[in-house]
Structures are given as C-alpha cells and as structure tokens.
Amino acid sequence: MVSLRQIEYLVTVVDEGSFTRAAALLHVTQPALSHQIQALERSVGAALLERASRGAHLTPAGRAFLPHARAVLTDAANALSAARQSVGLAGGELRLATTYSISLGLLPAALRLWSRRHPDVDVRLYEHRHSDELTKAMTGGQADLAIGPRPPDWTGPIHTLGIEDFVIAVSRGDPLAVRHATEVDLAELRDRRWVHYAPDNGLADVLNLACARAAFQPSIAVRTEQTASAPILAAAGLGPALVPANIVPDGYEGYALRPSPGVRRELTAYARTVPDALVSAFLVILKESTRERLSRPAS
Length: 299
Prior knowledge:
The chain has eleven helices and twelve strands. With 299 residues, the protein is α/β, with parallel strands linked by helices. It starts with a helix and ends in a 9-residue tail after the last helix.
C-alpha cells in the first residue's frame, strides 16, 4: 500500500535531484530513503526514478505520477489544517522548522512554555544547517511554521520576532578578556585564526560577511559542523568565534564581548498560508518567550 511518507520521499528526491540531498533534508539515512522509494515502486508496479551517477531523474511513469503525488501532499496538509480548525487545540501535532542555532538558543524557552500550556499537542521539530535550506523545506510543505532569518521574496505571512545580536567568544586567557574589554573592533582581529563554521552552516556566511565589511578575510584555525561547538572551542583557546548572543550559556567558561560594528540579523516566523488556531497559539508563545532575548527592530 502506498503511504504519504513514500510520496513525500519521492517528491523530495525529485525536488533535490539527489538521494543524498533528499535524505539530509528529510533527516533519514540514504538506505532508508531508497528502501521507501523501492517499496513505492513495487506498489505502483513500475520504476519511477532512474538512478544515475549525477543524481536521480523521473522515468515516464514517474513523470505521470508526480503531479498526482504533489496533489496528494497538498490535500493531506489541507485536511490536517481543517481538522485542527475544527478541534481547536485539543491534541494534534505542531510541525516546526528552524536552523540549528535557533533551535539551540531561542526555541527551548518557547517549547518549554508550549509544553506547559498545551501538553496534549505533539511537536515535530525539523532543524536545518542554512536559512536557504530552511526556506526550501518550508516551501515544500515540511512544516507549519518556520523560524529563521527573513526569507527573501516570501509571499506568505511573515511575523517579525526581533533582532538577534552576535558576540565574539574568546578564552579567559585571551588578551581581550584579560583587559576586560566589552567591545572589540573587528578589524583588530584580522590577524587572528578563527573558529569558523563548515561552509554549509549558515553562520559561516554571517562571519564571512562581517569580516568582509571590516576589510579582511578570516584565517581559519578550525571549522565546526555544530553551532554549539563554536563557543566551546573558542573558550578552549583555539581562536575567536562569532556566535549568536543567545546561545552563550550562563556560567560560560570563556569570555564574550560585542563586535564593532555590531553584527545583527532579523529573525522571523513565517508560514505558507494564514496560520490556523494551533500555529497562532504557538506564535503568541514564541513572541512572548523571545521578547527579552531579542532586540526590537527600529521603527
């Protein structure tokens, strides 16, 4: 029997053009993804994808199947929304998508409040490395609400949460920490070797842009895949790290100070359509929990 999951997997492979990228986006292993596609093809009775060294392409049967597959996913999302509206907030599942740094810094407080007030509603959280990846997943129907930097050219509803500030994290033995500096001109750090991020982590772009504005390119001591590792590696003395201020924990073993000029970005929550009762309730809690952790945008 064909399942919604199998249809979702097929559409994602087609959209990504690759089993590898689709598996990463869906947060499943590539063998598991291949198994589900093969099961779908057995149910259909025909091959839907042609696997090649440079990706995956639709067969004639796949091209005939795809528009109906997309329609099924749209109908399922509409059915879920209609059911939620009819039952209010009693039960159901809230699907959220965000980036790694936001799930680490801002979301825990909102999810804690949500769990206390709506314990019967399950939350499915999808985490992405880059804001572009997040927007693409949201466009494809992965979640009910995305929390991340403002997406360019987004046509659905967007709710501004506030402005996220970044800080420079260093070790306690760093000269900046020893002299108790509260702010540092980024240009002073041009000769330092930095704790950088892997190229597919969106914070790599934030650091590169900040340094470019200060007229230098950062030298790299170490690259990390995990956002949470950056302040830890900086505290260990491997070099300065540019991190969102809200991920620096209380009792941090390193030292954090403001960069000059400041590094900031607007954070938003956005959806494809007008939020239903469940999503609207979460938006209220999200704005409440981030009010003290983000700066207000200039009017």
